[in-house]
Amino acid sequence: MGKIGETTLEIDLAALEHNFRFLKSKIGPETKFLAVVKAFAYGSDMLAIAQKMENFGVDYLAVAYTKEGALLREGGIKCRILVLHPQPANFEELFQHHLEPSIYSPNLLKSFLQFIEGQQSAYPIHIKFNTGLNRLGFWENDVDYIVEQLKDRTEIKVVSVFSHLAASEDPKEKEFSQRQIQSFQKICEHLNGKLGYTPFRHMLNTSGIINYPEAQFEMVRSGIGLYGYGNEEKVDKYLKPVASLKTVISQIHRIEPNESVGYNRAFKSEGFRTTATLPLGHADGIGRHYGNGKAHVLIKGKKAPIIGNVCMDMIMVDISGIDCKEGDEVLVFGPDRSAEAFASSAQTISYEILTAISPRVKRVIINP
Ligand SMILES: *Cc1c(COP(=O)(O)O)cnc(C)c1O
Q1: I want to staple 260 with a disulfide (CB 3.0 to 4.6 A). Which of 14, 164, 265, 322 is the partner?
Q2: Of 210, 221, 231, which is best to mutate to test ligand 1, by the most ligand atoms within 8 angstroms of its C-beta?
């Protein structure tokens, strides 16, 4: 066990490269690759990940919000950046940083056309269609409206058309996913026929890449897979988790029978217990639902359940029977203990725990 001294999120860039190569091996040599780096690259280190992906030669990066794209540009990223969920309030910032908006509704199209009016060269945009997720996107029958709006508007160029699967990881929803894919194909044919040129198409996220290889079109978009999780064991075994959350034992207590631990006395000891206090709480991303015995951490490879209520800055774990001392390292998740397993003990998913780790936790890049 090393001596990390404080709570640390290790970001392993060799694991990122491994995952990227794996995902690339699942797509055609001509298929473009978009790396999703929204939400601080799924809670890791947005700039470090984006730099690495740019060096690997990905075709696009994607963020959710304009602000995230601006941070990438300010950090020196030159790669093309798709903003999945832009808002008119940020068009100026988007334009200044040459970020490419996803245009997902008649209202957004209208306001972007207004904003861009008089611009000399054609500004790249991406049109998003809703094919069943019912979250963001134009409807199939909006194609004529879009074409009408874009007619003779040389300030805009539709670079790509895309949609998003609602249940790409769920084999029970295969039929639904296939219907989404067919509907998307129909939309693209209709749109291309009327637009007079051919934007490229993309639909698949990580689980889509694995489960619907026939629907790669010209590009795929991967997030969670790059960070080492595939939503299924059969995929996880080929991937390497990029982020490891480690902490240390701050203090050890011996607890007598009938004592309590933590706020509201939520843990009551039946017998003699030994507990360790760790510098990691709900303000660091370990939500209260991880407490009261739901989840555990690993100390010297042994399970130490989180007992009592999670505090803002600390958790207490039961280390009875584990040979450890103050200052010893504690593993919350990482390659030897997946974030998915940690998350599922509190009824949530890897995406949520990864993106929850707050900026207060020190990031350390390994294998740069
Ligand atoms: C977040 C996101 C992705 C990435 O999905 P993963 O499951 O993490 O691969 C792809 N496309 C869109 C539109 C997204 O919002």
Answers
A1: 265
A2: 221
Measured from the CA of 227, which atom of ligand 1 is nearest?
Answer: 8
Looking at the fold, whether 269 and 338 belong to one and the same domain comes out as: yes
66 assigned to some structural domain:
yes
Question: Average pLDDT, stretch 171-179?
Answer: 98
Of 167, 201, 227, the position where a domain reaches its end is: 227
Same domain, 169 and 219: yes
Which of ligand 1's atoms lies nearest the C-alpha of 42? 8
The DSSP annotation for 247-295 comes to: EE--EEEEE-TT-EESGGG-EE-SS-EEEEEES--GGGT--GGGTTTT-
Pocket of ligand 1 contains residue 36 by CB under 6 Å: yes
Q: What average pLDDT does range 119-141 have in this prediction?
A: 96
So what's the pLDDT on residue 1? 43
Q: Tell me whether residue 20 is in a domain.
A: no
Ligand 1 atom closest to 209 (CA): 9
Residue with tokens 């190569």: 21
Using a 6 Å cutoff on CB, does residue 32 contact ligand 1?
no
Position 349 in a domain:
yes
223 lines ligand 1 (CB under 6 A): yes
Q: Where are the beta strands (DSSP E) in the chain?
A: 8-12, 32-36, 60-63, 80-83, 100-103, 123-128, 156-162, 200-202, 219-222, 243-248, 251-255, 260-261, 267-268, 273-278, 296-299, 302-307, 315-318, 329-333, 362-366
Last residue of a domain, one of 169, 202, 227: 227
Is the CB of 202 within 6 Å of ligand 1? no
Give nearest CA residue, ligand 1 atom 4: 223
CA of 275 to the centre of ligand 1 (A): 40
Pair 100, 215 in one domain: yes
Residue 73 pLDDT > 50 = yes
Same domain, 156 and 269: no
pTM for the model: 0.96
